[in-house]
Amino acid sequence: MKYVSTRGEAPAVGFLDAVLSGLAPDGGLYVPETWPQFSAEKLASFAGRPYAEVAAAVISAFADGELSEDVIAEVCAEAYASFAHDAVTPLRQLAPGRFLLELFHGPTLAFKDVAMQLLARLYDHALGEAGRTMTIVCATSGDTGGAAVEAFRGRRNVRIVAMFPDGRISPVQRRFMTTVTDDNVRTLSVAGDFDDCQAILKGLFQDAQFAHAVDLSAVNSINFARIAAQAVYYFVAAAALGAPHRPVSFVIPTGNFGDAFAGYVASRMGLPIERMVVATNSNDIVARAVEEGRYAKGEGMATQSPAMDIQVASNFERLYFEGVARNGVETGRAFRAFAASGAIDLPPAARAEIARLFRGVAVDEAETSRTILATLNATGALVDPHTAVALAGANRVGPVKPTTPVVVLSTAHPAKFPEAVYAAAGVTPAAPPVVQTQAGLPERFDSIAADAEAVKTYVRDFVKA
């Protein structure tokens, strides 16, 4: 299977090249030339199977022979052995027909671990085979950086620089990056917001000479392996609830749209998803695009759900590409226009494709806090602010049919946001041992301006050292 750029101006590449590159050289995002398909029988067979086995089946469909079945099975088994729950991503029933999909049982207590632990092992295998060392630069709105640092720390074939927006993430999120002392890890506090960090990252890739000199790669959700790995838990959850014999609806708290696009991928592969609700906080660019057909930046706001404080949702480009019948020229034109003006209108065909599956809803700070308290009182479940945004979205937009189960993605452990949870519910979440340990460790990070040239200099110096 080959992978093509959403902007249509880069040569097609294989799976491992797409993984190691991250971003296509024309600035687009890689997607497979065709979507692999699972039969109803295959989907039904996922019920009750170990998570790593389902993951191996999904990754094999995308790797398409580039990696042996034995290697994929070993990589997946290792990736999920460190998770604190045997089911890896267990379902918790809150009420009749409503479930939480708990995605926070990995080493950094966030859903990013599900993909990052797998991605690190794919890098290990590919780079070891090639005798190659790469430099990963990561932009994070909170959880990606910690998950990436944890997954890649100490690995001989990778250097990693994690950028986070100064003052815009929780202390617990920050410490998952800044308390790590491995020599192959550096952490940068950027004087700006996440969109600044993300723009810097894209700028690094667009400088071909720099990217080649440091052998640059990216593990943000622009990396298609992240999307493939995240699609797995949609299959697992739906199969547990009766798929393919009955459809399932999902509600996803979203910022960069990677988690939501992974659900779209699962649906394209044959999973019967009735509806996907994308729930944003006050940074509502995705909700507005889905509901109004205009993808336009607003003013970035700092909220109690910082991983969603995003006004440029990179993975939305992948959905746009599908919506315009995979027209790379049109997608490239649209997103170059968006970069210049900050707004584009979705063509009618793209709006129709999005409306076929998606609904959007924006949740403000007061409703997020009320939902944390109401969920605790009604169910005994203490949830983080990102999960609360999704629960509020589920309260407003239900499934198409009342008999369809609704799965709300719970993307982070509440202990990552103790101040917000306490302010909303008057309860301090119990801190897992890893959080208690980190609280007593010194932090190590460097501060830098929101300037691509300054970051390039920093990365060059790190590579030389």
CATH topology of the domain at 86-110 and 225-425: Rossmann fold
**Strand arrangement in the largest pleated sheet:** 3-4-14-9-10-13
Number of strands: 15
- Main sheet characteristics: 6 strands, mixed
User: Please, what is the average pLDDT?
Assistant: 95
Describe the structure.
With 465 residues, the protein is α/β, with parallel strands linked by helices. The protein has a domain at 86-110 and 225-425: Rossmann fold, CATH 3.40.50. It has 20 helices and 15 strands. The strands form 4 sheets. Strands 3-4-14-9-10-13 form a 6-stranded mixed sheet. Strands 8-5-6-7-15 form a 5-stranded parallel sheet, with helices on both faces. α3 (51-63) packs across α10 (224-240), α6 (143-152) packs parallel to α7 (171-178) and α16 packs across α17. The model has no long low-confidence stretch (mean pLDDT 95).
